[in-house]
């Protein structure tokens, strides 16, 4: 419990730096927090981890004061009822290594500026109500190439051709309205392990795709993909493969 008469470093869900006693982590799981994310979280300048997870009564937009947390490395706001857009100010948090905004009611387009986060290892925007195209800038991340999770939204248009320059370890674009050629995600020189492109409107010739030897899981079911399954694909150490409900032959 949070008793104002006791040291906040002893509070549940709060962690402090052992040397400075400054709060560096606030992780609030599966509770009954209601209303909006309090603006006062922006007044914790040494915060490195901020997490509100499985809080169904948490509503409103993503709190703008979070932009003040320049030392933030881990931000998870997931399984809540927060709404509004994915804010552009998140790109100011240059130390972020993990950004998870999944399982919310976020709407609008994905800000292209998120590609300017140089230390990002994982980006979760899945299971929202996001619309528009995947930003072309996501084929030009300036630092690490993060694991990318955009599934279960309403994204449309083509997968950016700039993805040919990116080597995603794990990418999930499933259950959107994406069209056209997804072969740019793959390549012999890449190290992709997991790719889920299922339940879109993708249309390309599978027989001409060169898959990385690192691939362990491929799901492309429920698209308009044609051609035949390449022999090279059968020689990979795949643990999961689903190519059903397409237009394949042979």
UniProtKB/TrEMBL annotation:
Protein location: Membrane; Secreted, Cell wall
GO cellular component terms given for this protein: membrane
Entries under InterPro entries matching the protein: Leu-rich_rpt (IPR001611), LRR_dom_sf (IPR032675), PGIP (IPR051848)
Principal location class: membrane
Keyword Transport: no
Pfam families per record: LRR_1 (PF00560), LRR_8 (PF13855)
Keyword entries, A-Z: Cell wall, Leucine-rich repeat, Membrane, Repeat, Secreted, Signal
SUPFAM superfamilies on file: L domain-like
PANTHER family xrefs: POLYGALACTURONASE INHIBITOR 1, POLYGALACTURONASE INHIBITOR 1-RELATED
Family: Belongs to the polygalacturonase-inhibiting protein family.
Name under which the protein is recorded: Polygalacturonase inhibitor protein
The organism of origin for this protein: Vauquelinia californica (Arizona rosewood)
Underlying gene: PGIP
């Amino acid at each position: 419990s949070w008793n104002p008469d006791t040291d906040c470093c002893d509070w549940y869900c709060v962690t402090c730096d052992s040397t400075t006693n400054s709060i560096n982590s606030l992780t609030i799981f599966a509770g009954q927090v209601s209303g909006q994310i309090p603006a006062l979280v922006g007044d914790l300048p040494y915060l490195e981890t901020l997490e509100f997870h499985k809080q169904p009564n948490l509503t409103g937009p993503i709190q703008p004061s979070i932009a003040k947390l320049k030392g933030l490395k881990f931000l998870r706001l997931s399984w809540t009822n927060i709404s509004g857009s994915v804010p552009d100010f998140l790109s100011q948090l240059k130390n972020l290594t993990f950004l998870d905004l999944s399982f919310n009611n976020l709407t609008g387009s994905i800000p292209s500026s998120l590609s300017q986060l140089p230390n990002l290892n994982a980006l979760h925007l899945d299971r929202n109500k996001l619309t528009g195209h995947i930003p072309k800038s996501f084929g030009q991340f300036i630092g690490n190439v993060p694991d990318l999770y955009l599934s279960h939204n309403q994204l449309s248009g083509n997968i950016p051709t700039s993805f040919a320059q990116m080597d995603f370890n794990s990418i999930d674009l499933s259950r959107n309205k994406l069209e056209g050629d997804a072969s740019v995600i793959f390549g012999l020189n890449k190290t992709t392990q997991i790719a889920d492109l299922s339940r879109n409107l993708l249309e390309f010739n599978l027989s001409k795709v060169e898959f990385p030897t690192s691939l362990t899981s491929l799901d492309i079911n429920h698209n308009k993909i044609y051609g035949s399954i390449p022999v090279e694909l059968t020689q990979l150490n795949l643990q999961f493969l689903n190519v059903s409900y397409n237009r394949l032959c042979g």
